[in-house]
Design a protein that fits this description.
This protein has about 350 residues and is α/β, with parallel strands linked by helices. It is built from 8 helices and 8 strands, in the order αααβββαβαββαβαβα. α2 crosses α4. The longest helix has 27 residues.
């Protein structure tokens, strides 16, 4: 629309000139606005607090090994659901029973925090909160049936997500978030350090298998998911894991690009590695939600995982708050820029 001139002009020359001048102004205005439209809106992302995340990791470990059926597991479940309830709009505890590799039936609890349930566009963030009942990667076979602390393998991912939940309570992104702490991820069959026996796939990630078949909400869907596992050791390397690459390469690109742009290229490396069995496999295959795994993998040692994987040294001595910050900050920049 042209701006009114306020007087009636009889001269054709003046009318033409005024119209032409108005058109130029409109074109100039449109051209000046165009770059602004093309530029992505700058978003203020809250600062991830590494010390707070570290304290959430320690709190879990302080309960003792979080093996299903133990008092430590029961107490930690209560703390996780109560703490998450301080931040989320609502919290659901999904109780389930499942058969483990021994043939026994074990009771598990998936703990689910829901943020902005009215939002249709959603992102799923998840980690497992149970710890391994077997230190089966210890050199000494007599220790193989000893439960581990699981500071990195389990508690680190939960600690990062709990800190993210605290921020979601204070500053809401433009999307809905669902945080799930899966249970019975690490109850797979024992496998000694020197054993070459292949794993029975379905004895692992039992909580995510159950949830993927029985989501907490009828017809639940999310645009994508991010799983955090073993994200707490010093100088961790997060390669592009193969299962994530296969099912959700675009999400993998987005997260890795975000981490690298934040200056964390030494952590989010562009190395591609073979896919692994983790919670995200079942979320992809059964629930149909494209989900990636941020997981530290070390192909230089005796296993593909970090040095103290499934040993008694997976304790707080090996948790680095800087790594927690790198992962937490990256995930927050991804979700707050949606």
């Amino acid at each position: 629309m042209y701006k009114k001139l306020g007087i009636f002009l009889f001269s054709f020359v003046f009318i033409f000139s005024a119209c032409d001048d108005g058109q130029k102004k409109d074109r100039q205005k449109s051209e000046s606005e165009q770059p602004e439209k093309e530029q992505k809106k700058t978003v203020d992302v809250p600062d991830f607090n590494r010390d707070s995340a570290y304290s959430y990791v320690k709190k879990q470990v302080d309960f003792g090994p979080r093996v299903p059926g133990t008092e430590a597991h029961k107490q930690c479940a209560g703390w996780l659901s109560n703490k998450l309830n301080e931040f989320a709009d609502s919290v659901l505890v999904q109780d389930f029973n499942t058969k483990v590799h021994t043939g026994e039936i074990k009771a598990g609890k998936n703990i689910i925090g829901i943020f902005q349930p009215e939002k249709r566009r959603r992102v799923l963030l998840c980690a497992h909160w149970d710890s391994r009942p077997y230190a089966d990667q210890e050199e000494d076979p007599s220790l193989h049936n000893t439960p581990i602390d699981g500071a990195n393998d389990g508690a680190s991912g939960v600690g990062v997500l709990m800190e993210i939940a605290r921020h979601l309570n204070q500053t809401q992104p433009n999307i809905g978030i669902d945080i799930i702490f899966f249970d019975l991820e690490d109850y797979g069959q024992p496998q000694g350090k020197q054993s070459r026996r292949s794993r029975k796939q379905d004895t692992w990630a039992l909580g995510s298998q159950y949830w993927s078949r029985n989501p907490h909400q009828f017809n639940y869907s999310a645009n994508y998911g991010i799983l955090l596992d073993m994200v707490g050791v010093e100088d961790a390397k997060f390669p592009r894991e193969g299962t994530s690459e296969y099912y959700a390469s675009d999400i993998l690109d987005k997260v890795w690009r975000t981490g690298q742009n934040l200056g964390y290229g030494n952590y989010f490396v562009d190395k591609r590695v073979t896919g692994i069995l983790d919670d995200h496999l079942y979320i992809n295959q059964i629930a149909g939600i494209p989900t990636i795994d941020i997981i530290a993998l070390d192909n230089t040692g005796s296993s593909d995982f970090f040095e103290h994987w499934h040993t008694l040294k997976d304790n707080m001595d090996n948790i680095d708050s800087k790594t927690l910050h790198v992962v937490g900050s990256t995930v927050m920049h991804v979700i707050y820029n949606e």
